[in-house]
Design a protein that fits this description.
The complex is a heterodimer. By secondary structure, chain A is mostly helical. Chain A has helices at residues 2-15, 40-50, 53-58, 64-70, 88-93, 102-124, 132-157, 180-197, 211-224, 228-235, 278-281, 289-296, 313-318, 324-329, 365-378, 382-397, 409-423, 430-436, 440-453, 482-487, and strands at 31-32, 75-78, 261-265, 307-311, 330-335, 338-343, 360-364. In chain A, the strands form 3 sheets. In chain A, strands 2-4 form a two-stranded antiparallel sheet. In chain A, β5 and β6 (338-343) form a beta hairpin. Chain B has 11 helices and 54 strands. Classes of the chains: A mainly alpha, B mainly beta.
């Protein structure tokens, strides 16, 4: 009998294969990092995934347009007294935003998510053997994306923490703030390395980062740092691009990644989750379904929240009379029976309401030309500068129609800035241009006074205006989100 | 902590051998004699069938037959017979030379001789050294509720049971001893007939339940190891009683209504039109014709009431018991049918349970229990925020009360958008709730089989296989006629479909060996065991929208088909357990137990955890010095200490997971991936060390019994998905960090106030509990959680999940007030005025360096319950009261119902808002003409309400119809009952037990006390009958 007991207990134990694999149950739905990052394909997929955060960074109601464009004198919002809920971008516009604003949080968050994805690749890729050309291409893209992310962070937030390897423990998730110089040095290193590793536009898969994109980014950094000679040298390496003859064609979804495009955020309409919706975000609301359909030509629903990034009268008045870019950039739409301007650059035919095919231009060749004009003018090479500036104007007005011949450095500087304002309108350049030109405070204070004096000109309903404290504190940087300050032991 | 697996099995083997060497091969018997007799109940002098008759200290025994008669061979004249029956005080009578022993058993609800179900066994109540409370199914049989947890409300000290929503078929929130965890749920572990189930407890038919035992302290729960930290609820289902065959039929029917008190106090038609008129005037806009004459609308339309109806509730259940010589069976079949108080909501449940047992031979017994359940119901998403996925009820409340929901011909329009009156496209919510299908079908099978082998006396080997499997199908279809927030129907874009299939399967194999031994006055019980459990669930969802026709509700007809999703979850658990119960002279008790769990959820560096506990008890009243005290009938002191765990950490949290993150380049979609969370190979369970000190005191011949417990729990290695700086690319990290202390006092007192013809018994319990956070992560001393407008703070030195927001100080009454007060950037004269908590002269918002502060505690200071039972001849009356004191509720519905934009209906109180310095109103609401967002979207004190309440949960009046010695009918009982009879509370919105998140689901510990608008809890009136046939 005792024997039977021992036997039965032993039997029960053996029934459930008493080995430790019984307690190792990894997920069947998703992979785990410990078994990933072993092959070329793994890294290829990881670099694809690293582009993901760009979509949320540029699109949606917390997109880059709010801080890059609407913060400036180019665009505003259409105050909707029915909906005071989704108004975070309104605070950005009126300089009432604080550290809890979800728009600035979005920029902070998405950039760091992209950085972490890139760091994961850069940490591990050299430990895996595969084709050197493909490896260089992946590393180049990774470094470009990291440079792009830190460049965005440093310009809007100033001093931020600098992560260049993956956090593995709780303690490694937080770092102290790095100085602006340290961050710029990292950006320059990354962009320089990326420019060497990446293929040019002719050989790279369309839509991915190229050596041209890396050099444009690097040139932009030097412009910010007022290193004019380095900027000129770098930007002149951006070759293989040309302006499209017709300005409006540059933004056509049918011509994505065209000869003028240096880097654009890739969207795609449909239900896969890659669609953009700039037209709808930038739509004056409330607006009835029929009023939207009148522009889109498809079945629509009424839109009832708030419309953002509405062109201001200030910008509309800046266009010269026969500038073809005006009609290509700004259209008019009837909302609630009243006509309002809207951004036409991102208004193209699409199949489903709220689901558009438009890409977002980050860098275009015309900006390289204007950068070169600026870098040369600052080095007092104004004659050469004018050749680049007038290339851009020739396309806008017709060859030789409206050439600029100003050679005074200061006057030309203003003309280049104005040219950037209209050429690159609604491409999130204006606010940073104001900051770089050190005129943000004066321009926006004057703008604010205008709004307060004539709120109806800025699409406010009768009886409503901005808060009196609006435009009284023109800040050049955005605060690091309060939620992040609360989490970090360092700041 | 890592355990070597083979050493585990060796230990077990050794234990087995040691046990076997101790085995005593039985005893010789003296010459026996036959004893017989009748057993009757003292209550009604009726024979009691099924009473256990046992020769004390042996397994010799029998049970009484249908006439209450028994007959038994008793070995010797010095033997003692023990007569016991559930619900009655057992009696011990020495056989002496008697051959006929008739016994009258006395009922005793709180009998100390009661058998208490404990983990992996049972004990006599007096032997219990832990904090355990048991309630028998018979004590709560008349409550007309769908779920057994509702029946427990008010009856258990230290157990907080809240009905967060009245939605039919929805479970309750059960919290034992203030249980809370920072990121995981804090529900107790439910163990049905020894099986820790994994499926929903809500679909178990309460009529199947024989006993419910709540294990509260570590000594009684530690045998459930890594799953026991939030307490354990043991449920036993009805087993056949020996010697009888009977059938009992229970049926009740009733209706349900939503009490008038607690319905939201919204403006009526003319009040709202007046509000619109005034706010247009204040803005300097022209008042359109629609609002020129507010009085024309009169009362208007009450949209809240329009969503409600009178509900119906019916329940039928049949129980059958049979017992043959070597075979026992018990069958309970039930049908529960509820038509809810909100339109288009219902719940039906069909359940069956068959419990059998077979005596294969004199020392082998086997049994099979099978319990299939099928339930289905429809419940359009009534709960939650108005712009969320549900929120039908709140949306209806917000609809302007001047527009009708019904046409004059009785039909319901699809939209009530009225130019000039409604601002947004406005769906007809009454139509929406009628047209939306939100069906849930659940199949569930709970079953087990066991064999018990007693090879030698007092050594029992038990092996069981248990299976819990279920499937839930959700079918959601919102036709084009059912609008949603800000999008009125009909619209070709409207219709959408979601079809979810969830199935799970879990098996448990459990093997235990129990050995009991008495010598001299030493009594031992030793238990050793080995269990293995595995779980798998499969989830899939397909969804689509843009249907060409509402009549075809399958994905085939959807023009837009969303990507389908699938998810598989698995875990496995391997455990060893052992327990020693020892007592000396039935006076000094000592127990020690340990469980070792190995879990697939724990990180590879931390696979095994051990959970030991010890406890002791001393029956002081048995001591000679206490014997002389005539008023003292029983006094026991007990203490326990032990460690339990919480392993609710998700199945794969330990791994760094890689998720799909596809990308598109130049219109070509390519596959991509991203590492989406930080893994943690050291991840382990949460440890709770609990100390319990208790006292049981009975005085005046058990007329008054009193129980007191003090407990202190220290939870460390808190499983805590803490937010980490996003600069790392990740927003959370799940780790074992931090420490929280919980403590509390529990008092229960039961009294027999009157005996005799008129009987009156009272039970009262009250429990105080509190918690304090001792440590959090190394990165931060604060945990902020937010949902919608709500923020909560958990900070070192404070309590868990405190409401965290601004303090309203009124409104800026006039320019002087404005100039003299601290203000925010967008403040104006007439807008809401907050307190400058940090005293820097400015009002700022945000979680750090701003003016937010703790503005309420959602946990009660104490909870209490009070039960009174009266009986007089055939009549009986019971009243159950439950209550809570000191907890706060955040009424988030007011974010919508006090919206000053004039686009929704609002609370009546909004008419006293600020309009001018001369007409500043009540000081609660600001003006309509400024930035109203802060007042509405900043979490502040105006949302916080007192949640204290006293609820008369149930009143039941019953009558036992005298049955005149009818041949088959044993008893007939009629009763009438009111559930949720009265609620005394200052909380303005009906259900002070409310607790749902913004999507209408049960929230975690850091989001307690939220009211995002929930299905109302109805008052239920029922009439029932119970017939027992033999």
């Amino acid at each position: 009998m005792r024997f039977k007991f021992i036997l039965s207990m032993t039997f029960i134990c053996s029934l459930y294969s008493c080995d430790s694999s019984f307690l190792e149950v990894p997920s069947k739905t998703s992979l785990t990092a410990s078994i990933y990052f072993k092959t070329k394909d793994d890294f290829q997929q990881a670099i694809n995934g690293a582009y993901g955060p760009l979509l949320g960074l540029y699109g949606g109601t917390s997109g880059a347009w709010a801080m890059g464009e609407m913060r400036s004198d180019n665009t505003t919002y259409k105050y909707n007294s029915n909906d005071r809920g989704t108004i975070a971008p309104e605070f950005i516009k009126d300089f009432l935003d604080d550290a809890t604003n979800p728009v600035s949080s979005n920029k902070y968050n998405q950039n760091y998510i992209m950085i972490a994805r890139v760091n994961q690749i850069l940490d591990l890729i050299d430990g895996v053997e595969f084709d050197a050309t493909i490896k260089s291409n992946i590393k180049g893209q990774a470094l470009f994306l990291r440079a792009l992310a830190y460049f965005d962070l440093v310009q809007y937030f100033g001093s931020v923490p600098l992560h260049i390897t993956t956090a593995k423990t709780l303690e490694q998730t937080a770092l102290p703030l790095s100085t602006i110089d340290v961050i710029y040095n990292q950006i320059i290193d990354d962009a320089t390395a990326a420019a060497e590793l990446l293929p040019d536009k002719a050989t790279q898969d369309p839509g991915r980062a190229t050596s041209g994109a890396a050099n444009t980014l690097l040139g932009n950094v030097y412009i910010i740092q007022k290193k004019w000679a380095e900027a000129e040298f770098t930007l002149k390496k951006v070759t293989g691009y040309s302006l499209l003859p017709n300005y409006a064609d540059v933004f056509e979804p049918a011509q994505k990644n065209n000869a003028e495009s240096i880097f654009e955020v890739q969207y795609k309409q449909g239900t896969e989750g890659f669609a953009s919706s700039f037209f709808y975000t930038f739509l004056v609301q409330p607006i009835s379904a029929n009023e939207v359909s009148a522009v889109t030509g498809i079945t629509e629903v009424a839109r009832t929240t708030e419309g953002y990034n509405i062109p201001t009268p200030d910008l509309i008045n800046v266009y010269e009379g026969n500038d073809s870019r005006k009609d290509a950039s700004i259209g008019y739409i009837i909302a609630g029976g009243v006509s309002y301007p809207y951004i036409k650059k991102y208004s193209h035919t699409h199949m489903l309401s709220g689901n558009t095919d438009d890409n977002w231009p980050v860098y275009r060749y015309s900006e390289v030309l204007l950068f070169l004009a600026e870098a040369l003018n600052e080095q007092s090479k104004s004659t050469e500068a004018l050749t680049f500036l007038n290339q851009v104007r020739d396309r806008a007005f017709g060859a030789g129609v409206s050439l600029i011949s100003e050679t005074d450095k200061v006057a030309l500087r203003d003309l280049i800035l104005k040219e950037r304002r209209v050429e690159l309108a609604f491409e999130n350049k204006r606010w940073l241009d104001l900051v770089r030109a050190e005129i943000a405070e004066s321009v926006m204070t004057a703008y604010g006074n205008n709004v307060k004096a004539n709120p109806q000109d800025y699409y406010f309903p009768a009886g409503i205006s901005v808060s009196s404290s609006s435009y009284t504190n023109i800040r050049l940087n955005f605060p690091i989100p309060a939620s992040q300050v609360a989490l970090s032991p360092y700041f | 902590m890592r355990r070597n697996f083979t050493s585990q099995s060796k230990t077990l083997l050794l234990l087995t051998i040691v046990l076997i060497t101790f085995i005593d091969y039985g005893r010789s018997y003296a010459q026996s004699k036959k004893v017989s007799g009748h057993i009757t109940s003292a209550d009604d002098n009726q024979p009691l069938p099924g009473v256990n008759v046992l020769v004390k200290g042996t397994t010799i025994g029998t049970t009484t037959d249908s006439n209450g008669a028994y007959s038994l061979d008793v070995p010797g004249s010095d033997d003692v017979l023990v007569f016991s029956f559930i619900g009655y005080s057992p009696q011990e009578i020495a056989a002496n030379t008697n051959t006929i022993i008739d016994v009258v058993l006395v009922t005793d609800i709180a009998s100390l001789q009661e058998v208490i179900v404990v983990g992996y066994g049972s004990q006599q109540e007096k032997e219990v050294t832990g904090a355990i409370q048991q309630i028998n199914g018979s004590e709560m049989k008349d409550l007309p509720v769908a779920q057994f947890t509702q029946k427990l409300q008010g009856r258990m000290a230290g157990v907080r049971i809240n009905q967060g929503t009245g939605r039919p078929g929805q479970g309750l929130n059960v919290q034992i001893r203030g249980a809370a965890s920072l990121t995981t749920g804090s529900s107790p572990l439910y163990v049905v007939d020894g099986f820790p189930i994994v499926g929903d407890i809500a679909n178990i038919n309460p009529d199947e339940i024989e006993t419910i035992t709540v294990l509260k302290d570590a000594a009684s729960t530690s045998l459930y190891g890594s799953r026991a930290a939030f307490g354990v609820v043991l449920i036993t289902t009805k087993k056949a009683k020996s010697g009888t065959t009977n059938v009992s039929v229970d049926a009740y029917t009733g209706f349900q209504t939503v009490p008038q008190k607690g319905r939201p106090d919204m403006m009526n038609g003319s009040e709202w039109a007046q509000f619109k008129k005034e706010s247009l005037e204040d803005r300097g806009q022209t008042v359109p014709a629609e609002f020129q004459n507010p009085q024309q609308y009169g009362k208007g339309y009450n949209w809240y009431d329009a969503m409600l109806r009178t509900g119906r509730i019916n329940n039928y259940s049949i129980s059958m018991n049979t017992s043959k010589e070597k075979f026992k069976a018990s069958v309970v079949a039930g049908v529960f049918d509820q038509k809810g108080v909100m339109l288009n909501s219902d719940y039906k449940r069909f359940s069956l349970r068959v419990n059998t047992s077979f005596d294969l031979n004199k020392n082998i017994r086997a049994g099979f229990n099978v319990a299939p359940t099928y339930s289905y119901g429809n419940s359009p998403s009534s709960d939650g925020q108005f712009f969320g996925s549900g929120g039908l009820l709140l949306n209806a409340m917000l609809t302007p009360p001047v527009v009708p929901y019904q046409n004059s011909d009785g039909s319901y329009p699809v939209a009530v958008t009225t130019p000039g009156i409604t601002t947004f496209p406005t769906p007809n919510w009454v139509r929406s709730i009628r047209d939306i299908t939100s069906k849930k079908n659940e199949n569930r099978l709970l079953s087990n089989g066991y064999v018990e082998w007693e090879p030698i006396q007092k050594l029992v080997f038990k092996s069981s296989i248990n299976i819990d499997m279920g499937q839930t199908l959700n079918h959601f279809f919102q036709p084009s006629t059912a609008g949603r927030a800000f999008a009125s129907a009909p619209s070709a874009l409207g219709a959408n479909l979601s079809e979810t299939n969830f199935q799970y399967w879990s098996w448990l194999s459990e093997n235990t060996l129990t050995w009991t031994k008495q010598f001299n006055q030493h009594n031992f019980e030793i238990l050793g065991g080995y269990t293995v459990q595995k779980y798998r669930s499969d989830y899939s969802n397909i969804s689509g929208s843009n249907f060409s026709d509402d009549r075809v509700q399958t994905i085939n007809a959807a023009l837009v088909k969303n990507n389908p999703t699938m998810d598989i979850q698995e875990w496995s658990l391997l455990s060893y357990l052992a327990r020693l119960n020892y007592n000396y002279k039935d006076k000094y008790f000592l127990a020690a137990s340990i469980r070792t769990d190995g879990s697939s959820r724990f990180g590879k560096d931390n696979k095994w955890g051990s959970f030991p506990a010890v406890s002791a008890g001393w029956i002081i009243s048995e001591e000679s010095f206490a014997k002389g005290t005539s008023w003292l009938s029983f006094l026991k002191a007990r203490a326990s200490y032990g460690i339990t765990g919480n392993n609710n950490i998700g199945n794969y949290t330990q791994y760094n997971s890689v998720s799909g993150s596809n990308a598109v380049f130049n219109n070509t979609t390519v596959s991509g991936i991203a590492v989406t969370n930080l893994g943690n190979t050291k991840l382990g369970w949460e440890n709770t060390k609990q100390l319990d000190v208790g006292l049981d005191l009975n005085i005046f011949h058990d007329r008054i019994s009193f129980t007191y417990d003090y407990y202190q729990k220290l939870t460390d290695n808190l499983l805590y998905t803490l937010a980490v700086p996003i600069e790392s690319g990740f927003s959370t990290f799940t780790g074992n960090v931090g420490e929280v202390k919980f403590w509390g006092h529990e008092f229960s007192i039961s009294t027999k106030n009157l005996e005799g013809n008129l009987k009156w018994r009272t039970n009262f319990n009250i429990s105080f509990s509190d918690n304090k956070v001792m440590a959090l992560s190394t990165l931060s001393d604060s945990l902020f959680v937010s949902q919608g407008v709500v923020n909560t703070l958990t900070r070192v030195g404070g309590r868990i999940g405190q409401f965290y927001g601004m303090v309203q100080e009124g409104v800026y009454v006039n320019q002087a007030d404005f100039d003299a007060s601290p203000k925010a950037v967008d403040s104006q004269v007439g807008t809401i005025k907050f307190r400058d908590v940090d005293g820097n002269g400015k009002i700022t918002f945000g979680n750090s360096g701003a003016d937010r502060t703790v503005i309420g505690n959602p946990f009660p200071k104490f909870i209490f319950g009070f039960t009174n039972n009266f009986s007089y001849k055939g009549f009986d009356l019971s009243i159950v009261v439950a209550g809570s004191y000191g907890n706060k509720i955040a009424a988030i519905t007011e974010q919508g119902t006090s919206n000053l934009d004039g686009v929704f209906n609002v609370l009546k109180g909004v008419k006293d808002r600020w309009r001018s310095p001369e007409n500043p109103g009540s000081g609660l609401y600001g003006k309509t003409t400024a930035s109203t967002g802060r007042e509405r979207d900043e979490f502040h004190t105006r949302f916080i309400k007192d949640g204290s309440y006293l609820s008369v949960k149930n009143i039941t009046l019953g009558y036992n119809v005298p049955v005149k010695a009818a041949k088959f009918v044993n008893s007939v009982r009629l009763y009438a009952s009111v559930q949720q009879a009265l609620v005394f509370t200052k909380y303005p919105y009906g259900n002070p037990e409310v607790g749902i998140d913004s999507n209408g689901n049960q929230p975690g510990s850091t989001l307690q006390g939220l009211d995002f608008s929930a299905y109302p809890v109805p008052r239920t009136f029922t009439f029932g009958i119970n017939i027992s046939v033999q």
